[in-house]
Amino acid sequence: MREKKGRRKIQKLKYNFPLEEDRLLYAVVTEANKGIGLETVRRLAAAGLTVVLTARDEKGGVVATRALQASGLSNLDVQDPKSVESLAKFIHDQFGRLDVLVNNAGASGVMVDEDGLRALNIDPASWLNIDKITSATTQLSGRAMDMVQGVIKSTYETAKECLNTNYYGVKRVTKALIPLLQLSHSGARIVNVSSLRGELRRIPSEKTREELGDIDTQQRRKSMESWKDFCTI
Fold first, then answer.
1. CATH of the domain at 47
2. CA end-to-end span of the chain, whole Å?
């Protein structure tokens, strides 16, 4: 997705008290046009931070930014290296540093059969985003979980998107912004948002669970092998 320069303007937050330049705090929240990301932006802004809301969906990002009336918008696709580089340059040029990075962008790795949901008397509209899918599937168990699993399908493409977003995307964004975080005057923070779907006990393959759970001997090469298994299991 190409970024449009017209959307890359920042509106400074309105503070209730004056802050000196070296006391200002700057934050970036990825995929923050809805759900947890949007509320994170709201809370950070309320705490006095200048927040850059990023979103892959330009229209959704604009709507969210207007609703908050306090933050700026930057288009970002964490799967696109050029998009990430553009964000880093934007932060550098506008603020010169970064204090908080919240990696919120995520992909569920599944496809949902809408007709199947309707057959179970479930409104598809309430399931068509990762927050709702994660929340619902982690609260179900037993027979109810089996019923829902029947309408949630995983494919190679959805698994690949999941890895490119949840793993490589987080690494890509973090690596690009670390130089700016190191310039923080108050000690930088990196927050990685996850979900119960990422718990090892939810991985079907016992071998994969053991490998990922062995932190002491886990190496990058072994991790890469595990990611390949993730797309083929």
1. 3.40.50.720
2. 30
Q: Is the domain of 28 the same as that of 120?
A: no
Q: Which domain holds residue 63?
A: 5-105+166-194
Spatial distance between the Cα atoms of 142 and 21, rounded to a whole number of angstroms: 55
pLDDT in tens, 51-110: 888 887 665 545 545 555 445 556 788 999 999 999 999 999 989 999 999 999 988 777
Alpha-helical runs (H) found in the chain: 35-46, 58-68, 81-94, 114-119, 130-139, 142-149, 156-166, 168-181, 206-213, 220-232
Extract the tokens encoding 198. 């990422």
What SS3 state is found at 29?
Answer: strand
- Give me the phi and psi of 50, to 5 degrees please: -85, 115
- Shortest CA distance to 122 belongs to which of 146, 148, 96? 148
Mapping DSSP to helix (H, G, I), strand (E, B) and coil, where does residue 203 land? coil
Whole-prediction pTM value? 0.70
